[in-house]
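Worked problem 6 (solution included).
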Amino acid sequence: MTKRSPFRYFKTSLEIIRLAVMMYVRFPLSLRNVEVLLHERGIDISHETVRFWWNRFGPIFAAEIRRRRVSQMRAYSNWQWHLDEVFVKINGERHYLWRAVDHEGEVLESFVTKRRNRKAALKFLRKIMKCHGRTYIFVTDKLRSYGAAMKMIGNVDKQETGRWLNNRAENSHQPFRRRERAMLRFRRMGTLQKFVAVHASVHNHFNKERHLYSRSNFKLNRAAALTEWRGLCAA
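Solution. The predicted structure is:
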């Protein structure tokens, strides 16, 4: 049975929808910023249309990117995972955004909770391992919730803590923080969870670690990533 295209009832071309979603999720732009930039390119749409498109199609694009990358990452079980959490305000109430990245900066999982206790840490760890399997080393900060959760799943010997060991996870928060400021924070926990999942997948797709390549190789990798993005959901 042929799978129906999620764009079958839309008059706007798929290329324009992909461009609008990429601009909004990838760069620290507001909805109205995206509207103005598209208008300069001869595309006249409302900022509410951009909001609708990213809500409707952002998770679809992210799921396809994730599906392609997870199968490749499962083959590398000896990688390090860096776990960390940051404070996020939602309507003035403090929440916690748990994030896991590998040793190359690939965002593995993002998870939002109201608490920062053992139960939340355990749920976060189980969610990562269900999707990505098991790893060789867990690098965390000295939050006791991690240690308590590690004991329950039998990974105490795989946990490492140190003053600078978790800088990889700390630095990985910066792209999200820039987006958070541009969006003037979040108003719902569900919206935050949805956005960080989409943002992580798009960031992984276009993050080519520019400082590790020569200019010529970086341009090739950037062009390949853009070509792959333009092919999402094309079938």
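Discussion: The chain has a mean pLDDT of 88.
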